[in-house]
Amino acid sequence: MILIVDDRPENILPLKKILELHNFTVDTAESGEEALKKVLKANYAVIILDVQMPGMDGFEVANAIAGFSKAKDTSIMFLSAVNTEKKFIAKGYTSGGVDYLTKPVDPDILVLKIKNLHRLYRQQQELKETQKSLEKEIEVRKQAQEEIAGRMQELRSVLASLPQMAFTIGPDGGLEYVNEHWFLYSSDQTAFPQTHPDDKKVCEDWDIYLKNGIEFTREIRLKELATGDYKYHLLRILPIFQQGKPARWVGTFTDIHPQKLAAELLEQKVELRTKELLVKNLELERSNHELQQFTWVVSHDLKEPLRKIQILNDLIKEKYLSGNSEAISYLDRSINSSARMSGLINDLLSYAQLSTPALFQPTNLSHLLNEILVDFDEIIHAKKAVVTIDQLPVIDTVPGRIRQVFQNLLSNALKFSKKDIPPVIRITSERIAEKNVDSERNPDGGFYRIVVSDNGIGFDEKFMDRIFVIFQRLTDRASYEGTGIGLAIAKKNMDKHNGIISARSQVNEGSQFILILPIHQINE
User: Which whole-number Å values give the CA distances from 150 to 54, 153, 248, 376, in the listed order?
Assistant: First the structure.
């Protein structure tokens, strides 16, 4: 802003118009006293000051303005039509003016001079702002340096108190500080301890970590000065960042020698124990194989005398006891006991054979169930049973073993039916998402849920844990025949198929046996 000071308005007006035409902001004062008041309130780049004024003349006003610290960057230009002598011009310069123009003055020259003075004022203000900014930045940096120095001192105090070897590394990768523990392994505070010859390559890539500011961790063996022994240490170096860049590094060597020796000893023991277990497993496999052969031979040898007992009993009954009802009754009991024992031997043999590995293959469960129904055709016809089978899927199974599952479930459904009420059996299937009895239906799921329902005598669900255990029965042998092995065989077969078998039932309300089977299997 430009201030024009003149006691005559007719002098102010044309000068003001000229300056405003050149986009200057102009203020005016008609006396020296008014000018001083305005200088105290506002900042002016240039003051155009008339020399001849009543009261305070221009020289007095200039001397007064020079004493204002606020106006020390303001340029004063004297403009006079009367005082044109050399002595007045000299007085104008000594009073603090930067220029002295006499009237008449060329307007273009005057505007150019004011432009230069205005630009000079603006540059001075910019320099001031730059200086303030630099001073502030210097102060901030000074505070930051003091804070860093304090933190480094604090860090060194902490490192000195650590039980590990601790050190700091500068931006150039050289050691700056080491604590007392350092000198157990190195006599030079500027050099790293001696490492085992086999560990020299461990730290070859440190330069990459240093350059990229990445944490560096390695196991390394250091030579102890007192004993000359190499001991395992964990080296860990962490970057300290300033303004997004790693300024220095803090590192530690932690003694892990006892743990390392213990780990090596443990590994040796584990290796030895593993070898022992492998030997035991081989022995166990041989024992299992021998046991399977023994089971087969024993069952075969037991079944042969039983068959002879049954045949001889039948012959005695037909030839010699046709008229003796009491003897026939006793003989029937003997025959039935032999039959039960034969069934028990068969079931035990089936259960023992489940430990033998078998291969999975795609199996059409609908075809499998139809074949099983043929085996039960006689009892179905005798009991007037109604068996309904929905469309079942093709999934990976061991056919012989999954056949045992459905045979046992159908056999139980027919066996444990209500008296004088024809059995009604239904087998359904649906694709599900998860291996879970209550999983929701999902056309893209990886499992099938197959439900075998009947209207038989049912059972109390509080006995659920017992029904899949070998030799466990919920009914008396006099009312319902059986060995108590069928559902145990089914359970073991489902485990071999990586599946689930469960049940839902109420007494006299029938039962539901639920099978969850994967669609695809992997042969080991």
Answer: 65, 5, 15, 92
